[in-house]
Amino acid sequence: MNGAGKRPKRVMLVVGEASGDLHGARLAHALVERDPALEIFGVAGERLRGEGVRVLFDVARLTGMGLAELAGSLTTLWKAYRVIRGALREEEPDLLILIDFPEFNLRLARIAKELGIPVLYYISPQIWAWRPRRVQRIARWVDRMAVVFPFEVSIYEREGVDVSFVGHPLLDVVRPTESREATIERHGLEPLKRTIALLPGSRRREVAYHLPPMLEAAERLRKVMDVQFILARASTVERDEIARFLARSSTQVAIAEGNAYDALNACDLAWAASGTATLETALLLKPMVIMYRLAWLTYGLARLLVRVDHIGMVNIIAGERVVPELIQGEVTAERIVRETTRIMHDSEVYRDIVAKLAAVREKLGAPGAAERVAEIAFEMMK
């Protein structure tokens, strides 16, 4: 059905959050570079729209859905599903590319399989962390997996899934745009003083859980160490929200807008909420203290479902506790200060962490993930 006529090839691309929009945009760019006539459409955000992708449903309406948010957003999810399901049937794309967002995307994969549309899944669901039986559904409905962590390959090979390790897309993204000296000067910081970056999270609730203990830790740490602070504000968190917390603290904290990688590059160590930011920090070879707090009900459910020894992606990839992790009740100013001083007062410990972060970076492959996925996509459309 997809080979009729001489029409340009069509790709449906579906993402479910801001990071998917980012990585999807790089993939869309790589696809169109290979074939400028290619038509791409689907669930997308501003970055994908900027690459000329026709947006059938805006990803901004689907983002930020934790357990609590999801319960109140089923109508929006169902509407998005009906729109994309209808487009699959009516527009008959030559390929469906899915990026993460498994609860939504695996249902689309099943529909595509029924319609005879090949399915490429880029950035695997975290089946190694929770709900491992999903790999069986993937084996039934997905034609090709493009995974970004090397340890994921064997998981899919055991189920007979055609899988390729393409490298991590952050290797193409995580780069500072200016020198440490320029960043320090621009934010009015002192060039010779040790600097700690604060990464409290990309959602309001994460900031509310993590920033207060970080600020209390900053006040305590200043009493025992000559140190300064810079906070990298996520674009998804309003500046006023950050300022509200900073107003209650006696510690001066510079706020970095825009490129968080410049702030990270300027720091000696980071305090980071668990998530993508920890991997970005690791790629810049900066030691960190990882922390994560959730609502206790959500945490209790997560304890039942999640089966990993570490919460930080850098520790999961390394297979050991390279950097400290603080979870729930452990996220206190006292513990943050204790772990920070242990790292920063012992140069041997600091160098050992940096060396292990470099080894983690090596495991993530080489830059060019989007180009490798684009190559797979065109192979599947032949």
Set out the fold topology.
Elements (H helix, E strand, L loop, with lengths): L9 E5 L3 H17 L4 E6 L1 H5 L3 E5 L8 H5 L2 H18 L3 E5 L2 H14 L3 E4 L11 H8 L2 E4 L4 H6 L5 E3 L14 H7 L7 E6 L4 H18 L5 E6 L6 H8 L6 E4 L3 H7 L2 E5 L2 H8 L4 E5 L3 H10 L7 H6 L6 E3 L5 H12 L2 H17 L5 H12 L2
Parallel strand pairs: 1-2, 1-4, 2-3, 4-5, 5-6, 6-7, 8-9, 8-11, 9-10, 11-12, 12-13
Helix pairs in contact: 1-17, 4-5, 5-6, 8-11, 9-10, 9-15
Give a verbal description of the structure.
The structure is a single chain. With 382 residues, the chain is α/β, with parallel strands linked by helices. It contains 17 helices and 13 strands. It has helices at 18-34, 46-50, 67-71, 74-91, 102-115, 134-141, 152-157, 180-186, 204-221, 239-246, 260-266, 276-283, 296-305, 313-318, 333-344, 347-363, 369-380, and strands at residues 10-14, 39-44, 54-58, 95-99, 119-122, 144-147, 163-165, 194-199, 227-232, 253-256, 269-273, 288-292, 325-327. The longest helix is centred in the N-terminal third of the chain and has 18 residues, at 74-91. The radius of gyration is 22 Å and the shape is elongated.
Low confidence ranges: 64-72
- How big a fraction of the residues is strand? 15-25%
CATH class of the largest domain: Alpha Beta
Looking at CATH, the homologous superfamily of the largest domain is: Glycogen Phosphorylase B
Structural class: alpha/beta
Mean pLDDT: 91
Envelope shape: elongated
Radius of gyration: 22 Å
Number of strands: 13
Helix content: 40-55%
Determine the N-to-C terminus distance. Answer: 14 Å
Largest sheet: 7 strands, parallel
Strands side by side in the biggest sheet: 3-2-1-4-5-6-7
Q: What is the total number of structural domains?
A: 2
Helical stretch count? 17
CATH architecture of the largest domain: 3-Layer(aba) Sandwich
What CATH calls the topology of the largest domain is Rossmann fold
Q: What is the H-and-E element order?
A: EHEHEHHEHEHEHEHEHEHEHEHEHHEHHH
